[in-house]
Amino acid sequence: MRLDKFLKVSRIIKRRTVAKDIADQGRIKVNDKVAKSSTDVLVGDVLTIKFGNKTLTVKVKQLLDTTKKDAAEELYETVSETFEKIY
C-alpha cells in the first residue's frame, strides 16, 4: 500500500493530499529512510513523521484498504511521540 494512502486510512493524517505533501517535503521516514508518498508500506515497517514541533513514530500492524474510525488505531502501534520545545 502507498504511504500516503496508509496515513489517510489509519487516520494519522486526515487527508491524502496533505499526507502526500508532507511526504514529498521529506518529513516522513520509513525504516529510517526518507520516503516519498508513493513508497510501499509493509506490515512491520516503522514510520517516523514530523509535524512541526511533534515527532510521531509508529509501527505498521496491518494494512486495510478501508476502515471505520473506531478501528483505525488497530492498523498501527505508537512507538513514541516527542515534542520539541519552542523558545
Shape designation: globular
Distance between the termini: 39 Å
User: What would the CATH topology be?
Assistant: Structural Genomics Hypothetical 15.5 Kd Protein In mrcA-pckA Intergenic Region, Chain A
Question: How large is the share of residues in beta strands?
Answer: 25-35%
Q: What's the main sheet like?
A: 5 strands, antiparallel
Element-by-element helix/strand order: HHEEEEE
The count of β-strands is: 5
Question: What share of residues is helical?
Answer: 10-25%
CATH superfamily: RNA-binding S4 domain
CATH architecture: Roll
**Spatial order of the strands in the main sheet?**
2-1-3-4-5
When the domains are counted, the total is 1
The CATH C-level name is Alpha Beta
Query: Helix tally?
Result: 2
GO molecular function, one term: ribosomal large subunit binding
Family: Belongs to the RqcP family.
Subunit structure: Associates with stalled 50S ribosomal subunits. Binds to RqcH, 23S rRNA and the P-site tRNA. Does not require RqcH for association with 50S subunits.
Protein name: RQC P-site tRNA stabilizing factor
Report on the structure:
The protein is of the alpha+beta class and 87 residues long. The protein has a single domain (3-83), classed as Structural Genomics Hypothetical 15.5 Kd Protein In mrcA-pckA Intergenic Region, Chain A (Roll). The chain contains two helices and five strands, in the order H-H-E-E-E-E-E. The protein has helices at 3-9, 16-24, and strands at 28-30, 33-34, 46-51, 54-60, 76-83. A five-stranded antiparallel sheet has the order 2-1-3-4-5. Strand 3 and strand 4 (54-60) form a beta hairpin. The radius of gyration is 12 Å and the shape is globular. The model has no long low-confidence stretch (mean pLDDT 87). Belongs to the RqcP family. This is RQC P-site tRNA stabilizing factor. GO terms for molecular function: ribosomal large subunit binding; rRNA binding; tRNA binding. Keywords: Protein biosynthesis, RNA-binding, rRNA-binding, tRNA-binding. Residues 1-64 form the RNA-binding S4 domain.
